[in-house]
Amino acid sequence: MNKSYNTKNFDAIRIRFELSNNLGFIPLYTKVFLDLQNGINSNDPIFTTPMHLTDASIPLTPMFKHNKGLLFFETYISFKSLNTLPNAVIMEKAKKLIFKYHIEDPSGANQEFNTYDFGPTIIKNKELIYFVALIDLI
């Protein structure tokens, strides 16, 4: 899916992420990276699910400068409680998860995206599934 958010020339935005309909999965965390067009990128996420949250969400963040980069969301969930099921069943259940990526600018205008770009992908030896969503800031 090609997702983009028109920043309307605002220098800053804020974001929020929610995951629901967990269906027996254990949500672990989400990391958000900002890939900049100038090639100067950090390996560190700009936001991560706070330790006290157990739903892999990102609460509404403070405003941050985006430089019209690419937001890169990585969400990890555990299927340890479902590991007796066949992989095909686990994958079908994972595809039913509900993702909400919310972006807001200083004027209060906002947009919500409900699709991911890559995944679900199983990391079998760790009993994890991860998803990736990309949102281009234009």
Task: Summarize the topology.
Elements: E1 4-5, E2 12-20, E3 26-35, E4 47-48, E5 64-65, E6 70-78, H1 87-94, E7 98-104, E8 110-113, E9 118-123, E10 128-137
Parallel strand pairs: 1-10
Antiparallel strand pairs: 2-5, 2-7, 3-4, 3-6, 6-10, 7-8, 9-10
General description of the model:
The chain has 1 helix and 10 strands. The protein is mainly beta and 138 residues long. It has one domain. The strands form 2 sheets. Strands 1, 3, 4, 6, 9 and 10 form a 6-stranded mixed sheet that branches. Strands 5-2-7-8 form a 4-stranded antiparallel sheet, with no helix packed on it. It is elongated. 24% of the residues are buried.
Short summary:
The protein has 138 residues and is mainly beta. The chain has one helix and ten strands, in the order ββββββαββββ.
N to C succession of SSEs: EEEEEEHEEEE
Q: Radius of gyration, rounded?
A: 15 Å
- Taken from the alpha-carbon principal axes, the silhouette is elongated
Q: Count structural domains.
A: 1
Unreliably modeled segments: none
Q: Mind describing the biggest β-sheet?
A: 6 strands, mixed
Please supply descriptive tags for the structure shown above.
138 residues, mainly beta, six-stranded mixed sheet, four-stranded antiparallel sheet, 1 helix, 10 strands
